[in-house]
Write a structure and sequence with these properties.
Length: about 325
């Protein structure tokens, strides 16, 4: 049994929303680490990823909170096992959480009001969110005129009873502290869920895998095949400050392999250079030796066996 004097506000908060609204940018901002892949390409996030953050709540009882944020893929309609897997991950996170943080792109005129969540591709997300305590984060306020903000807040005021609306900029950190306090107030009181030093439920291997995949998005842009994945096959801690990684970039066709490798291997070399630096920084400034290979696994995204082979669905790996 826990000592009530040690109780805090502690629980899980699912970060949900449509694709490309800034969910992963927000989680990275909150935990102060490059934890999740971020790009302008929709559905960069494919897995549920937990980031843990503790905050103080001055003049409140309890005066501390430990929030386990669950970043989720953007909800989007579509066919195939990979899209279904991502959609299910978001819905399950919303259903399991103590509260739901709905992130809205305030610059997206056709997707920033509550009626967008009543449309068929997002209706499940809207329903799941309304069954939990809800916080709405109106993101990217640094990019909209101030007169547009008040009507938008008023539009969300009737989304659910007791909804809390916080305008933020995940990119620059505006109002993120206020947002965290709003989330904390929705959580139950009880013992902490994780050790104080814990930041994520994911291993360094998974974080490295995410960051390598992120570099694919940055380097390839519109050329990047949708069904492109990264699998780390070798990991060796050479010293406490030096890691050797062997990673495979998986595509579905030979033509896609050519895009990733580039002329005389130029593209994959550039990806490797950028990924080494980014992975090293994310893992605390370690020196990273990275070998990248490209492999064709035909139609991997269209079957459950292919998804399992590339680790989708294996939490905490």
């Amino acid at each position: 049994m826990s000592d009530a004097a040690d109780d805090i506000r502690a629980g899980f908060c699912a970060i949900v929303g449509l694709p490309n609204v800034g969910k992963s940018t927000l989680l990275n901002r909150i935990v102060g680490r490059h934890l999740v892949a971020v790009s302008s390409k929709p559905q960069t996030t494919r897995d549920r990823i937990v980031g843990v953050h503790a905050i103080m709540l001055p003049d409140e009882t309890p005066d501390r909170a430990q929030i386990a944020y669950v970043d989720t893929p953007g909800v989007q309609d579509g066919h195939g096992p990979l899209r279904r897997y991502m959609r299910d991950a978001a819905m399950m996170a919303a259903s399991d959480a103590d509260c739901v943080l709905v992130v809205i792109d305030a610059t997206h005129r056709s997707g920033r009001t509550p009626d967008r969540l009543d449309q068929p591709d997002a209706a499940g997300l809207g329903d799941a969110s309304r069954h939990k305590p809800v916080i709405v984060a109106l993101n990217k306020i640094d990019r909209i005129p101030r007169p547009d903000l008040l009507p938008l807040m008023e539009a969300w005021a009737n989304f659910t009873p007791d909804v809390v609306i916080v305008p933020i900029s995940a990119q620059y950190g505006d109002n993120v502290d206020e947002l965290e306090r709003a989330v904390a107030r929705k959580l139950p009181v009880g013992p902490r869920l994780f050790p104080d030093e814990m930041v994520t439920d994911r291993s360094p291997r998974f974080i490295a895998q995410e960051i390598i995949r992120e570099q694919l998005y940055h380097q390839l842009g519109k050329e990047l095949p949708y069904a492109c994945a990264v699998l780390i096959e070798q990991w060796s801690d050479k010293t406490k400050d030096e890691i050797a990684i062997g990673a495979v970039i998986v595509v579905e066709r030979d033509s896609q392999k050519g895009i990733v490798v580039g002329k005389q291997g130029a593209r994959i070399r550039e990806i490797g250079i950028a990924a080494r630096q980014a992975v090293g920084a994310a893992l605390g400034g370690k020196t990273v030796h990275l070998n990248l290979f490209v492999k064709v696994l035909e139609e991997w995204s269209r079957g459950e066996a292919g998804l399992r082979k590339l680790g989708y669905g294996e939490q905490g790996s």
